[in-house]
Amino acid sequence: MSDVARHAGVALGTVSNTLNSPEKVSEPTRRRVLAAIAELGFVRNDAARSLAAGNSTTVGLVLADLGNSFFVDIARGAEQVMRRHGMNVLIANTDVDRDREVGNLELFERTRVAGILFAPLDTPLAQSQVLPIRSTPTVFVNFTATGGSYSSVAVDERHGGSLAASHLLESGRRRLLFVGGPLMLSAVRERYEGAVAAAARVSDAQLELVETRGVNIRHGRQAAQAILERGAGRYDGIVAASDLLAIGLIQTLADRRGFTVPHDLAITGYDNNHFASENATPITTVSQPGEEMGRTAADLLLEKIARPDAPSRAVVLEPHLIPRRSTLGDLWPQE
């Protein structure tokens, strides 16, 4: 700014007013300052301004996996709210890496963002009450903070699991299988518990478990091999803990005699990933309200920024079922 002032032949305060309060500067002077800015290639350092003013117009968003469109929806919802309040959102993708998760949190702390939205991995770090953040207001997304130490917004996963199993049961399926894991992941475990509860409400229903090592397509293919080995007819409905698992299952089972989907095996997924409806066999899924979660989390963070001592709040949202061809077959309407 000093260089700009010298080049334009004005006081430093005039440059500041041109940038921040242009109504205080005459039109000829403003043009001269803007010409000097353009000539010198000056770019205002908003980070330095925020430090000097003791505030920031930027929040950080740490996401577990941008490869999952659910987290993209969270980012979109958060950005909508922050933009209305004149705030910017910087996104850091953890890519399911614990070290990167910690590094992203520490980076945002060092850069003095106004607050952090944290969609964590299900690790001891997320389950603890102490994050590597000393003073930055933080809100959890898609995870309930232990002991209410942070405000949070999450989805009722047990209800989601119950919705999926109930849908299969209502269509007459009785020999159910839950595919997902590891059960140490709280979301997967709660979805399984919801499915178990739904099956328990139907006297002639049964539910078995194939625990996987993850929730990606390859884990679904591996689970499908185990199902093939157990033989046709053992199951007539599968609750998969994710859409990716469901895709892996369908890719392996769909063309096998005795395992056709959905005639022999009706399959539900979870998350409503954008490609779930575009699969060769569109997948019935449990949809989480990602954008609503992002908006709610952003509102909670703005509360914390405005009133750091305000008590933490936990918000729980409801998922809903989207029926498609993987359970409805030809009854699914063409889009």
Structure in words:
The structure is a single chain. Helix 1 (2-8) crosses helix 3 (27-40) and helix 8 (157-170) runs parallel beside helix 9 (186-200). The protein has helices at 2-8, 12-20, 27-40, 46-53, 69-84, 98-110, 124-127, 157-170, 186-200, 217-230, 243-253, 290-306, 325-328, and strands spanning 58-63, 88-93, 115-118, 138-141, 151-155, 175-180, 206-211, 237-240, 266-268, 285-287, 314-317, 320-322. The strands form three sheets. A six-stranded parallel β-sheet has the order 2-1-3-4-5-11, sandwiched between helices. The chain is built from 13 helices and twelve strands. The protein is of the alpha/beta class. The N and C termini lie far apart (58 Å). The mean pLDDT is 90.
What general outline do the C-alpha atoms trace?
elongated
Sheet of most strands: 6 strands, parallel
Order of helices and strands: HHHHEHEHEHEEHEHEHEHEEHEEH
Query: How many strand elements?
Result: 12
Q: Name the average pLDDT.
A: 90
Which sequence of strands runs across the widest sheet? 2-1-3-4-5-11
Point out poorly predicted stretches. none
Radius of gyration: 26 Å
Termini distance?
A: 58 Å
Structural class: alpha/beta
- What is the helical fraction, as a range of percent? 40-55%
Number of helices: 13
Beta-strand content bin: 15-25%
